[in-house]
Records
---
Amino acid sequence: MEGFFSGIAQSFEKTFITDDRWLQLLNGLWVTIQITIVAALIGLVLGFLIAMVRSTYDMQLMGKKCREPKDYLLKALNTICNIYITVIRGTPVVIQLMIMYFIVFASSRNGIIAAFISFGLNSGAYVAEIVRSGIMSVDRGQFEASRSIGFNYRSTMLYIIIPQAFKNVLPALGNEFIVLVKETSVAGYVALQDLTYIGNLIRSRTYEAFFPLITVALIYLVIVLILSFLLKKLERRLRNSDH
Amino acid sequence: MTTDNALIKVENLTKSFGDLEVLKGINAEIDKGDVMVVIGASGSGKSTFLRCLNLLEEPTSGKIIFEGTDITDEHVDINLHRRRMGMVFQQFNLFPHMTVLRNLTLGPTKLLGQSRADADKKAMELLERVGLADKANAYPNQLSGGQKQRVAIVRALAMNPDVMLFDEPTSALDPEMVGEVLEVMKQLAGEGMTMVVVTHEMGFAREVGTDIVFVDEGVIVEQGAPEEFFGNPKNPRLKDFLSKVL
């Protein structure tokens, strides 16, 4: 029995104390957080822009003929967005990441920038479809009411449609970011020392699988729990008009 | 009745949705102070006609001359003209993410350059008029249907329009709430507001309307002052329609 406990203590020490491995884990966590935050921001901005293009096209041009130069521009942009979404959603993120690192960034081999961009581009495609579905879910009457007052298309989107769409898609958007946190765990493929990579590194150095892997799993779980908590709070704050 | 100072003049208006021709050449004139009531069976094109007046539906051909400007001209900034045309919808279409007060002040502050304080003050006066001042800080979802529609009417009025378009304003209401909305509309007509009203409320048409229009299969088949229109209908389709709804 005593041997069992001292065995655990030994594993614990090897996993966390020796060589300051707890610090390595902390550094790994920091890398994971950085990638997640930057990618989420890129994804959010990109996703919103794409959603605007796609829903503007759906509302103004679908099934109609192009008449002005800006119609052709919108059509071209819409096509580009469609291709982008198809490619991103149709290929694994780890492949996209490796293409970014080994091909696009071949000369600099800047792993963290490659990760920011890959995960950002990847998330953007999903955010775009989430936001677009939110815009489409706002009742058509809202659009007409705003236009009938005299607001142009842009102001209508800004004041009337997007605030309502954002509220509608918040749960789905939150889910996307939760997925993103966990997807960054493949960053090790491009030589980034993120949380998962460090956990696996410690496992291979110490021949202890239990503590490193369970610790890493628990840290992801805590991040996701914190994220869920914040999102719920935000949802509740935005719900004040739905009495 | 042809005058050059018609507020809205509709010339040969047609509208098709794909192969379906909904409006087949409508001519109409709405003078200042008129209350034009448009009646007709569902699917007759009466709502489409109304929605063409502020170009919520883009006419297939024809002209709509509002205050001397042909607003179907693609070089015209329709947004400027829509400010002068209030519209009230069957489904109210209040903005659910804003308070009642903000629903009223959004247009005036963002489009007319009114200060928030001025717009608030004017909005409160309007809400007072329809007996809803105590709901200023409520959200639309906290209101009854009748209250929502009264808010929708004053939201349109807050822009100080020259004409008000009503698209079946009482059709989505519970019967006991129809009266309060019609009352507000009657008041408005009494104050000289020019109105175009699509409705099934024949009592309102008879009492408040100055010009009754019967639309059938995309054309105006009969038009006249209420006494003549209801007292002595000529068109057989109109007779049939009136016998069903009166």
---
Amino acid sequence: MSYYQRVVCGYLDIELTERCNNNCIHCYINLPLDDSVALKKEITTTEVKRILKEAVSLGCLTVRFTGGEPLLREDFEELYIFARKSGLRVIIFTNATLITPRLVELFRRIPPLERIEVSVYGMRKESYESVTRISGSFAAAWRGINLLLEKKIPFIVKSAILPTNKDELKDFEKWAANLPWMDRLPSYSMYFDLRARRDNENKNKLIKSLRLKPQECIDILIRRKQNYIRGMKQFCSKFMRPPGSKLFSCGSGVGGGCVDAYGNFQPCMLLRHPSCVYDLKKGTLKDALVNFFTEMRKIEASNPKYLSRCARCFLKGLCEQCPGKSWEEHGTLDTPVEYFCEVAHAQARFLGLMQDGEKAWGIQDWQDRVKEFTRKECL
Amino acid sequence: MKKVRLNSIYAPANDNLVVREIYGEYIIVPIVSGLGDLDDAIFSLNETGRAIWDKLDGRRTLKNIVEQLSKDFTGSVENIEKDCQGFVAELLKRKMVIEIK
């Protein structure tokens, strides 16, 4: 049994704000830097500390400060020091534009004990700022990155594959490989989540337009073909089976979750369906994790379309479909998301698990096909 | 490496770390940088380590601790002494304990 299964709360994500000083075209959550309504509603310093304190009492070892841009919070240093002195490791998700010499000195003196995670959206000013839509953000990000490097503060980088930067992947990976703390390739987002608050249809249209086509996703996934196939064989031998009507096959809400910028506790960063969100101003992390999320995880699918497709689909392990994504796309927990379905089918066709024209939920001999794929010497 | 003496008194370097007991497991979480050589990793104590750590109270000498542990545990005094010295040496290297006297 893993540490996270043994304790009530092994990890916690806290979105310190939804505001961001960048305005990234693909972002699922960002609000403008000066959004006064959001600012006014944000969880207070005292509330964050109370939550951290309870998390520690429940066995939490790691907290992730994310956003929006978490460094926008005026009390960031105070919260960071509080978390560390409470015996927590801290992961910080940031765009690095607000990293200052003072902050780097703090990280040097009191290390986060986890690598800071920096999003880098382009290797050139033009590509970077076509994503962030903020003039000067490229220079600010590199200033921050160089400060981290100078003081040897461990960090890793990640990115998003977007039309304006996809030709720079090689340059990005070459640069990233030289960072002392990168022990693997950078991770990328490319399926892009729609707005988690379901707050802006125009932004959703833009995000959808940025998504790679299913075949382009495959091209990205197989850039290191042998590694990919080896990994998929291991993965498929363990995780390919129809999920049935049970909606929560992931670990969301088990041993941790995500506190949003307003003090609501969600099972994961995406899922903000009202029936899955717990108000921490009226209750405790423990009650949410032991009772509320436990009940939530029993919810079964009732949408006939989901039941006739996703529930019977052996590609579940390959597919991004989940209650969180269903919420973002359709406002429900159990509506199939066509894009993820297409990507999963394209992947299965590439791996030889299916032929053109087949639908995975109609395949009866899926176990034989998976077995054959995992045993095959090569593809 | 600093020599560990049986007549010395050692105590946790409380300003440098937080000790947490999580479901029966003792975990030492460094607060400041430079504790040890493992990228400031957290440090989990096994049963022996925990028994010794609990007695590093800044009052007893290491010799007193060995005597006490010899009463509580089976095993030769020599082995217990060796365990105690090895453990304290590791903690000193990680700056997790200080020598008081």
